[in-house]
């Protein structure tokens, strides 16, 4: 019987802070160039998405939600009543796509991620990645880290299917590869990943390589590991 495993991306396979500080600040810089009266609000823009100079909140918009939700939160800070909401959100999503697919970004895989994916392929697991990133950004970061060749299925923000924690991408993964629910499990670093697994009726492994602490995941994830490098010894 075929077995499948679905990974979250940032914080699970790719280090969460490896490029996101740079991406977010570049997007905010562009917003401030478009809306100069907002320039004094950088800290507010960071705080509302759960980002500080050296950390991410585990339940933050940045760690768990799509660019649309981040842009919507930033729109709530605008004081100019003449700015069109959907236009602003579209502009911000375009900026995220621009800066998150830049060739000068240096993405760093979580230690052992490539070796773990290679091991799972050798064990004939079907490998999926489900992320809040848009499709182009997800493909770019996976290719830059050399992980893309191991991925059989990518569920990313395409503007059509509902993102995590909804179970749309699980059902697509399951049906594409004719997998039974009991033969699939999820690996992720946030409670959004846990909720995605619960909505999909599959087991979930929480990893401590990203946004969440052990205390965040304890009693919620079925298993907790330090990182994906520990998966081969615990299957």
Q: Can you describe what's shown?
A:
The protein is an alpha/beta fold and 235 residues long. The protein folds into 2 domains: 3-16 and 107-234, Rossmann fold, CATH 3.40.50.1000; 20-100. Helix content is 40%, strand content 14%. The chain contains 10 helices and 6 strands; from the N terminus they run E-H-H-H-H-H-H-E-H-E-H-E-H-E-H-E. It has helices at 20-34, 42-48, 61-64, 67-75, 85-100, 113-122, 135-144, 168-176, 191-200, 214-217; strands spanning 3-7, 125-134, 153-157, 184-188, 203-207, 223-225. Strands 3-2-1-4-5-6 form a 6-stranded parallel sheet, sandwiched between helices. Helix 1 crosses helix 5 (85-100) and helix 4 (67-75) crosses helix 5 (85-100). The two termini are 16 Å apart.
Total E-strand runs: 6
- What is the percent of helical residues? 40-55%
Structural class: alpha/beta
Strand order of the largest sheet: 3-2-1-4-5-6
Silhouette:
elongated
Tell me briefly what this model is.
The protein is an alpha/beta fold and 235 residues long. It contains ten helices and six strands, in the order E-H-H-H-H-H-H-E-H-E-H-E-H-E-H-E. The protein has a six-stranded parallel sheet with strand order 3-2-1-4-5-6, with helices on both faces.
Topology of this structure?
Elements: E1 3-7, H1 20-34, H2 42-48, H3 61-64, H4 67-75, H5 85-100, H6 113-122, E2 125-134, H7 135-144, E3 153-157, H8 168-176, E4 184-188, H9 191-200, E5 203-207, H10 214-217, E6 223-225
Parallel strand pairs: 1-2, 1-4, 2-3, 4-5, 5-6
Helix pairs in contact: 1-5, 4-5
């Amino acid at each position: 019987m075929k077995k499948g495993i679905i990974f979250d991306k940032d914080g699970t396979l790719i280090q969460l802070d490896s490029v996101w500080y740079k991406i977010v600040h570049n997007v905010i810089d562009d917003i401030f160039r478009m809306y100069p009266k907002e320039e004094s609000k950088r800290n507010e823009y960071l705080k509302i998405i759960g980002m500080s100079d050296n950390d991410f909140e585990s339940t933050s918009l940045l760690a768990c939600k799509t660019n649309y939700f981040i842009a919507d939160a930033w729109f709530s800070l605008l004081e100019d009543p003449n700015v069109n909401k959907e236009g602003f959100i579209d502009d911000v999503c375009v900026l995220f796509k621009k800066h998150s697919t830049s060739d000068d970004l240096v993405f760093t895989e979580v230690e052992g991620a490539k070796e773990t994916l290679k091991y799972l392929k050798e064990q004939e697991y079907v490998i999926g990645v489900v992320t809040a990133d848009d499709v182009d950004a997800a493909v770019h970061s996976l290719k830059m880290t050399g992980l893309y060749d191991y991925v059989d299925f990518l569920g990313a923000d395409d503007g059509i299917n509902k993102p995590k924690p909804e179970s749309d991408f699980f059902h697509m993964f399951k049906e594409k590869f004719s997998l039974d629910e009991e033969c699939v499990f999820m690996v992720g670093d946030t409670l959004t990943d846990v909720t995605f697994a619960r909505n999909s009726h599959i087991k979930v492994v929480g990893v401590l390589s990203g946004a969440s602490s052990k205390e965040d995941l304890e009693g919620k994830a079925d298993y907790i590991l330090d990182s994906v490098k520990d998966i081969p010894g615990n299957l």
